[in-house]
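In response to reviewer comment 3 from the previous cycle, which asked for concrete evidence that the modeling workflow produces usable outputs, we include below a single protein chain processed end to end. The sequence was submitted unchanged, and the resulting structure tokens are shown without manual editing.
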Amino acid sequence: MKILVACEESQRVTIELRKLGHEAYSCDTQESSGGYSQWHIVGNAIEEAYSGKYDMIIGFPPCTYLTRASAVRLFPKKVLNQERYKKGLEAKDFFMALYNAPVKYVALENPTPLKIFGLPKETQAIQPHEHGHPYTKRTCLWLRGLPPIQPTDKVQSIGSWVALNRNKKTRSKTFEGIARAMATQWSAACKEQ
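The workflow returned the following structure tokens.
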């Protein structure tokens, strides 16, 4: 299958898909840190998603303005920050454009969103400790044509990944166990259909 991994500079999911023999490409506005520039597109993920070249899209749209964790910045002193609200609506439009791309299989990942932006209800929420990483970090998945991810390696959590890790860029990277579960389980589901 030909797969677009949108908004992924780390290439963690792309690499796992390539290991399974898929023609997967990461796409981001920045250069890749994954080490495989030949599999990375520096460009507009929406244009790629609508290019007609892909069978599946796995996307990690920017969450800065959508996440529930940003509520304190959206409502400073309990007053709506209009500029931040506008950026949140733009982020929602980007999210929905990826979700509605004309491909058979779509999966989007984001933290729990703020209700004010009206994203559709997530299909499921997963945790790193369900996939071999001893942390909590609730991650929502919106799926179209794909089944929910099943736990692969349940371990005891030692705490919140976000609280234990202050580096924002590191915090946003997909855990290897989750990347492997996405690649193997969704690939298998597509072969069965």
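The first strand starts at residue 2 and ends at 6. We consider this sufficient to address the reviewer's concern, and the full set will be provided in the supplementary archive.
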